[in-house]
User: Fold this.
Amino acid sequence: MEIAISLPMNELFLSALSFGLAAGIKPGPLGVIVIQQTLSKGLPAGVRASLAPLITDGPIIIAALWFLSEFKSIDLFAAALSLVGGVYLLWLSAKMLRVSEISLTGKLKSQSSFATAVKVNLLNPGPYLFWFTVGGSYIIRGSTAESLVFVVTAIGTLIASKVAVAVLAVRFFPSLESRGYLLTMKFLAGTLLWFGLVSIVRAAELVLHYARDF
Assistant:
């Protein structure tokens, strides 16, 4: 279905570029996984983790467009997602904190970087909240071609930014001793712990917001 054009193509492109870049470089659960996988397995693993939005964002966009056309509020959906995502991030953090010895051929080596990144991104409320709000509004305001440009540009810029993060991480890897690497993993685990707690708090806030409006 074609919808009336309300934004110039260059504005649509620049908006998608800005959104993708901001999401790519800001600290977040997927970024932490990209760094962790890069340091534990090398740049190819980090790049694979960076590609997670190729799998996750398509279904999220389709669901967002459906929800936007059917419902006026997604508070309970976002709350459930935030809660599940927060618990999963706490589990990942605890798993990383239990690592007492670093070995590239050890336990971290057996983990699937791409599968882990996909799960983290699917359970992260960030992509949902973006596509269900700002991203979705841009898509429904443009023609099919404009919407496609917006989606491809936003996701492409996001992935490129995450790959850049992986490259920067591996650039400093040779200077990391075993203890330095272990401390880096502990720091990343603490970051995931923080994101998990924030996600759970966000779920509670969304439930309270829904209860007030009900």
About this structure: The chain has a mean pLDDT of 77. Residues 9-213 form one domain.
